[in-house]
Records
---
Amino acid sequence: MSEAQRTIYLDHAATTPVDPRVVEAMQPYWAGAFGNTSSIHGAGRAALKALEQARSTVADVLGCNPMEVVFTGCGTESDNLALRGAAWAARQTGRGSHIITTPIEHHAVGHTLDQLHDLHGFELTVVDVDDYGRVDPDAIGRAIRRDTGLISVMYANNEVGTIQPIGEIGAIARRKGIVFHTDAVQAAGALSLKVDDLNVDLLALSAHKFYGPKGVGILYVRRGAELVPALTGGGHERGRRPGTVNVAGVVGAAAALKLATENRASESARLPALRDRLVKGVLERVPDVKLTGHPTGRLPNSASFALKGVEGESALLALDLEGICVSTGSACTTGEAEPSFVLTAMGLPREWAVGSLRLTLGHLTQPEDIDIVLDVLPRVVARLREHAPMSAMN
Ligand code: PLP
């Protein structure tokens, strides 16, 4: 058996393999129809046609007008454009400089808002989440001020999989006339992306999370939502994201999003059964372990745990030696274990929050993978506990 066949990949929230049908859809746009979409000659027009077709495909999935779809360079860029663009526009139009968010956003959102605060003087209100990582829409409502210009709440959390009540929060924002952004990077392929049901004005996606290519992001921008471009340059993407368009990439992103939407029902039926068997097995076989995130209101492919007294990164590396790929939200950047900021915000003490472990299932996951993990993980955790007792981590 080859090395690749023996690897059990349980990190689909980090990235996914490109679907062969997506590779095929992209193929003509590397060396054949390679034109620049801004060129007005035949080669350029062929590329532009492919770009606009991709935009329509994405718009169909989101239930919006193609003009409201902007292609970017990644999910991070979509979030940056949304937040910086909407914050600056809110200030420019006199709407205000106050922004509401949560403590468990991905760094693409959290660090962008921190910079808006630190360098540009925007005021932030960070609304707490509960023990499951869920934000209360009423708490968002209570945080709204006369000068609130923007609300940003992620659709589903990347570490613990908890799904937020985006439609309800969006309804509150809409009643108050406040621009509402959601980072939906982890939601594509698992949850509905219909922007009108979600009441969102800005929604960010990243193609490599749903079996599309890396380096392509999508940003939905509701008609009328003001956005100051974060990049300045030519007039691409109606001036909202200048830069020569990655035509093969956007064609791949659109094909992948369409496939992910078509496969949503079947994957949402297959994955939770496997995921639940994994969760049950881990809780039964590993002592001092907690399921993190909401027990039911979570992404269908997401199993996440906190291991008491075990560093998440050590568990990740030990599992990697056994050919199992997983993730942790607890980094070990300075030689000392850093607790996961998501688990900390959910109220877990340090001795648990350093032991974040995320296993995310996907197209590659087979039932026998779960059996292997349930055999290996208890041994790995027992060994780590034996060799690195908790006191060593304080
Ligand atoms: N937002 C969330 C919730 C994510 O999980 C990620 C990637 O892990 C991003 C944003 C960033 O996306 P990208 O890797 O395309 O920049």
---
Amino acid sequence: MTVVTKLEPSRAEVEPELTDGFHLVIDALKLNGLTTIYGVPGIPITDFGRMAQTEGMRVISFRHEQHAGYAASAAGFLTKKPGICLTVSAPGFLNGLTALANATTNCFPMILISGSSEREIVDLQQGDYEEMDQLAIAKPLCKAAFRILHAEDIGIGIARAIRAAVSGRPGGVYLDLPAKLFPQVMEMEAGRKSLVKVIDPAPAQIPAPSAIERALDVLKKAERPLVIFGKGAAYAQADEDIRSFVEKSGLPFLQMSMAKGLLPDTHPQSAGAARSTVLKNADVVMLVGARLNWLLSHGKGKSWGEPGSKKFIQIDIEPKEMDSNIEIVAPVVGDIGSCMSAMLGGLGDNWKKPPDDWTNTINAKKEENIGKMAGRLKKNSTPMDFHGALGALRRVIKERPDAMLVNEGANTLDLARGIIDMYQPRKRLDVGTWGVMGIGMGSAIAAAVETGKPVLAVEGDSAFGFCGMEVETICRYNLPVCVVIFNNNGIYRGTDTNPSGSSDVATTVFVQNARYDRMMEAFGGTGVNVTTPDELYSAVSEAMTSGKPTLVNAVIDPAAGTESGRIGNLNPQSTVGKKAGGKK
Ligand code: ADP
Ligand code: TPW
Ligand code: MG
């Protein structure tokens, strides 16, 4: 007799394999090549961070969300993929929001993902834990804001966020994930199918051939042409076509702060050392991924010479940018890669390089200015002034052109930007369009994490104060970051006095002789105090070679700086009553 035993149903038949909101978000990010998260844990995303680590993502935990946000936006600029910042609800979200707004302003792609409280309670304002209508608050500060309520929408929600961040003009995107979403369960297979791998997230935007022709025509007729590259050109990663275009056309060029190094600042066609001369005298200016905002005096005013003396060509992905400040006679709308390749193609074999008169004028001015500067950069005095100290750091970057440079402050920023030559694209991260203080440590962390290269962060003592606690993060992840504090005892200078004569110090002055190097030592990193450019050079070189987290406190003459660095003209001053204790 044969006994037929009934087969037990397998577990899978009874209980299909399941996934949940936590895992779907992680899988959706990974599917799209987003494998690093910058954030701060807490309700409702603590477990999310743990699971992301379990699933092989790199999760960098910060001490404050603002810096995680700056890191995400710097990662976006460097990689052309949206940087991911993860925060808790209400206060964490708000702390991340400054960075989201800054990313949008700078055209950097990032996604701020925030956990949020229970919709039903938030909307009835019944006082939930960390209650806030985050979506409404984020909306005006970013390119797009989305909320995902159901696990089956996670795939689409993340796809939308990615596309919104990187397509067209890049920017910040907000993604609201309510606490209730994370534990929602779905069948594994259905979950897998609901995910979307975004195809061609930033499609090429080909410029119209007629626009290219018009632009080339204007350039051809120019007697004193100039090209200005902005950080959009660096972001576009069209390095080869940009270099070929510049060299074949023979056009002199300027590079905006974060575009420096797109071509080496030492390139013979760089007009960086003759900036005022070329801005004033050029008759045709071609902007490539640079806006005519305050950083270029809106394309008008004294620095641009006689009103109406120039024609502008502008290459940008954002059509609304054209004519935003001044008439653009040849607008070229498209992505910079496609535009520069079309411009290069259009130069043809009979292209005539700019007239010798113009290039000779520029070269003479460059030589004069470089000569004037050389002596100041070699000064090895105590206390150091900005030029002597920056001369030392300039040597460091010359010897390590692949290192990343982060820079913020007022004098520390304005002078370093001019003095430290850059040699390779996307090596310089700074305060960007808003001139925001506090980007330093977040940018340095992202630079180290995303590129694996040594990072030099040149920081004003005030600028550093906005983000200084993140040196613990640098030590915790053992990142190859060398922070140099230009310690002049204050904002712009350390010599101001309180005009009232009371015992409170002036508003711009800090504790005298502070030892920032000891902050790094507190977390196991290396701290060095230096008082001469030679010492500074040695300490930084050693740190860059060792890759050990290092903070160099560089003692700068407290009287050396000027109010607002190089933008004192934007600073309103009272002409009524007694002058305050600051001096120019
Ligand atoms: P900078 O401060 O260096 O002068 P801006 O931030 O003012 O630069 O300008 C950057 C510009 O680059 C923005 O107008 C933006 O629309 C544009 N941009 C960014 N990415 C691209 C791209 N891939 N193709 C074309 N334009 C781009
Ligand atoms: C978020 C205003 C511009 S520059 C600066 C401040 C406070 C600090 C300058 O001092 P620092 O540099 O860094 O010591 P130095 O070399 O001139 O002494 N808050 C934000 N952003 C800005 N821009 C400010 C305030 C500011
Ligand atoms: Mg200072």
